[in-house]
Design goal:
globular, 46% helix, alpha+beta
């Protein structure tokens, strides 16, 4: 599936047809990954997850294609990207779980571990993103799904060698 290193994906210009192809590839993988996730719920330790791994790899490829198409101005930036950029510039030093109001909506700042050191005990790099909150204070699921689609690598922890 994903035999391309991420750096090579970012250097190549993409076409809309490639986005359609990857969307066709990702639909059945998502179903398998969801089923696999449900089957391992509650298990601990190292769990073999080939469908989740394949789905994440294709998701990362899709995100790279989308980003490339947006840089080429073939596709417009999404509302999530525009609002995230605005919130990042307005609230540079927002702490984890901080809630801010922007244009009548509440957004929560979240951090996820992005890179760990070699031992896996210390976080070397954090992913930062904003989640829209509904009126009852819960995270809006559609917004969260878009964040995961735009930046899937934020939800994939990597260990780095020193």
């Amino acid at each position: 599936m994903g035999k391309y290193p991420l750096s090579k994906l970012q250097n190549k210009l993409h076409l809309l047809s490639e986005l359609n192809e990857i969307n066709e590839k990702i639909i059945p993988l998502k179903a398998l990954a969801d089923r696999e996730l449900a089957s391992i719920y509650g298990l601990t330790g190292m769990v073999y997850t080939p469908y989740l791994d394949d789905y994440m790899q294709v998701s990362i490829e899709k995100a790279a294609i989308l980003a490339c198409l947006k840089r080429q101005k073939i596709l417009p930036l999404s509302e999530v990207e525009l609002i995230t950029t605005a919130l990042d510039s307005l609230h540079k030093s927002a702490k984890s779980n901080a809630i801010v109001e922007y244009e009548g909506n509440c957004y929560q700042r979240r951090f996820s571990p992005l890179k760990l050191n070699k031992s896996g005990k210390t976080v070397r790099k954090w992913a930062r993103y904003w989640l829209l909150q509904s009126a009852d204070g819960r995270v809006e699921p559609n917004w969260q799904a878009q964040v995961r689609e735009i930046w899937p690598s934020y939800f994939l922890i990597r260990t780095v060698g020193l």
